[in-house]
Design a protein that fits this description.
heterodimer, A: alpha/beta, Rossmann fold, Alpha-Beta Plaits, 2 domains, 4-stranded antiparallel beta sheet, about 35% helix, disordered C terminus, B: mainly alpha, 11 helices, about 75% helix
């Protein structure tokens, strides 16, 4: 695998897709640089999965120019398929086989050869902490184990572009952290990751670059830091013990927003030491006692609210239906 | 590889194979021991009458119904695959578009042949005798295998077309009904006019008659060609349909 930062791993221009009357993607442009994590963020039904399905050659777009690893997904789908790995929302594992057999199947399909295949499988089982369960049938696997096996199967063929469609949806916090760790390690190997998520903290944790998809359009994009900078909302919050202290502080600090009931004062500003020190020094000089202080920096929730016009809370999943596990 | 995967499924979960063999064996015993005495007497020209004659008459029909019911399993296993996530994984890999289906079909075909041997074994155990030569046995096996191949592709296509595993286990049910409306269990001459015409022209009758002719010496000249033509036709049409469904799958499904 050679890394060429000048060439985007994924580039899509003016992608359109509708199902009947329903427009799912309405002219989406996006570019993911090689060796980075690109995150597509959006509420349920925004079109994230459809975008992944188009990029991974599962369904055709109605229009647009789409290239993965430089290959056109329409005219040269097999070249794209040879490069990519996809881990979808629904676990793509064979429930009738053991974990090891699932990996073996992938190794065979990728024509790894016997010895190389066995090495790769042992390595992946080890890395994903599945060695102990390798020979057990999948019906005994937990949700987190299935998800890890799923990703391991994707990695068997050493893909250079990996699509992860909501890889941590439905996982417990510990499994989520493990998954994040694995994803971070992948990028250090030079792999490009296209990650969709509805969790803002996940995008914040992982993404080098992110695009917010809403109603089939990209409504904002940039690095997480860039997006946060664009959004106002950073402030210092001061809590006072006495109403007199609050009144005194209000008269001193311009632009501050007091809350008389809770004795709280919000002072606009960023989280730099300088601005913090200035506020505290002024209060100190006037001998005003501050009981508590907290700093609020804008997070992706603020960004999301600002760019989509609806609260991030609305996009958190209520209860996700666990995929049906087909029992023999 | 896909074949190995499907064979592993069958080995790990033999209950389906056992069920597929169970149905025709139950039919065999039911028809021979419960209805056989009466039906054998009604056969007329087909031998000396009675239970033994009916056994000779019905075994080819039972072998055909074995093929039909074994094909049901294909629809179920294909649909199970299609409703799971793994199929999308296969579809994003650089593997031949037909490989997944072909694996199912060849796997089912081997399964069907194994079940046929089992059913034939039971038939021989309860007294079925054939005067067929080795060549005729081979020809009968060939006709059965070809017909099985056709029905399995049809079943695979039905499994592809089904939206759920439950639907997939129901839609190919007509395949197990058709042998009854053929010369499999009673001669078509004994049926009322409309039914007889249907029975004489539906694909199960020439196939049954060909197998019966090869195993028991009744004339096959008029049946062999239609039997092979039907099998080849069904196989080809179903193959094209199944592969088309495979390539188009989920294209119209939002998210």
């Amino acid at each position: 695998m050679t890394i060429n930062p000048a060439r985007p791993a994924i580039s899509a221009q003016a992608v359109r897709k509708s199902f009947g009357e329903h427009i799912v993607l309405d002219g989406v442009d996006l570019t993911a640089a090689e060796g980075t994590i690109f995150s597509l963020l959006g509420p349920n039904g925004a079109g994230k999965t459809t975008m992944v399905r188009i990029l991974s050659t599962l369904i055709p777009a109605d229009g647009g120019d789409i290239r993965v690893g430089g290959h056109d997904v329409v005219t040269d789908p097999d070249a794209v398929r040879a490069l990519i790995g996809v881990t979808g929302q629904f676990s793509a594992v064979d429930n009738y086989l053991t974990g090891e057999e699932n990996l073996r199947l992938m190794a065979d399909l990728r024509h790894l050869g016997r010895a190389a295949g066995r090495r790769r499988i042992a390595e992946l089982l080890e890395r994903f902490d599945l060695t102990g369960a390798a020979r057990k049938p999948l019906s005994t696997y937990s949700g987190g184990m299935r998800r890890r096996l799923d990703l391991a199967m994707t990695l068997v063929g050493n893909p250079s572009v990996i699509f992860l469609d909501e890889p941590t949806t439905g996982l417990d916090p510990r499994s989520r952290r493990t998954m994040w760790q694995i994803i971070r390690e992948l990028v250090t190997d030079g792999v490009t990751i296209f990650l969709t998520t509805q969790y803002l903290d996940e995008a914040d944790q992982l993404a080098d670059y992110l695009a917010v998809l809403d109603h089939g359009r990209i409504v904002a994009e940039g690095t997480p830091a860039e997006l946060k900078r664009r959004i106002p909302g950073g402030h210092i919050q001061l809590q006072f013990a006495e109403p007199d202290a609050l009144r005194a502080a209000v008269s001193m600090i311009p632009n501050a927003t007091p809350d008389d009931d809770q004795l709280i004062l919000q002072v606009p500003g960023d989280d730099s030491i300088a601005s913090l020190r200035r506020v505290l020094d002024e209060l100190d000089d006037a001998r005003i006692d501050v009981e508590h202080l907290s700093i609020h920096t804008p997070d992706l929730d603020d960004v999301f609210f600002a760019v989509t016009g609806h609260a991030a809370a609305a996009i958190e999943p209520t209860t996700r239906q666990e995929e049906e596990v087909l029992q023999p | 590889m896909m074949l190995r995967r499907n064979l592993k499924h069958q080995l790990r979960y033999p209950s389906l194979t056992v069920m597929l063999a169970g149905i025709p064996i139950v039919f065999l015993l039911l028809f021979v021991y419960v209805f056989g005495g009466q039906l054998g007497t009604g056969l007329g020209g087909h031998g000396t009458g009675g239970r033994g004659a009916y056994l000779t008459y019905v075994v080819p029909g039972i072998l055909i119904i074995t093929v039909a019911s074994a094909a049901l399993g294909t629809a179920i296993s294909v649909a199970t695959d299609m409703t799971g996530g793994i199929i999308d994984r296969f579809r994003t890999m650089a593997i031949s578009r037909g490989a997944v289906l072909t694996g199912h079909v060849i796997g089912s075909l081997l399964q069907t042949l194994a079940v046929l041997v089992l059913v034939l074994g039971v038939s021989l155990a309860i007294g079925f005798r054939s005067h067929a030569s080795a060549l005729e046995w081979l020809a009968a096996a060939g006709v059965l295998a070809l017909f099985a191949f056709a029905l399995i592709w049809l079943s695979a296509a039905l499994g592809m077309a089904a939206k759920s595993v439950e639907t997939a286990s129901n839609t190919p049910m007509f395949l197990t009904l058709l042998p009854f409306l053929s010369s499999g269990f009673v001669p078509t001459a004994s049926m009322p006019a409309g039914l007889r015409q249907f029975a004489e022209y539906e694909p199960f009758t020439p196939v049954t008659q060909t197998v019966r002719g090869l195993l028991t010496g009744s004339p096959i000249a008029a049946h062999a060609i239609p039997a092979i033509a039907w099998s080849a036709g069904i196989a080809l049409a179903s193959y094209l349909w199944a592969v088309r469904l495979y390539n188009r799958r989920r294209a119209a499904e939002p998210n």
